[in-house]
Amino acid sequence: MESRADFPERNITLSFEFAKFIIDDPAILDEIPDGATLVLLPEDEPDLAKENLRLGVEAAERGENVYIRHVKNLSSAMPQSP
Length: 82
Hints:
- By secondary structure, the protein is an alpha+beta fold.
- It has helices at 7-24, 28-31, 46-61; strands at 37-42, 66-71.
């Protein structure tokens, strides 16, 4: 299991990657309900996806509107370790 301490930084990178998809296809925004909590599940980061899903379920249990989106190719956006 990967360190959860890295999850916030990896989620920021994931968000920027998702923003690139939106720039390429703005219709993606039409799928996301107004005011929804967006939960991104990266295909190539299973530990991060599991944690994000857990957080999404918690938000739903609090009564928040949650939109879950599976995304690919996060690893290509992540900086490589030396």
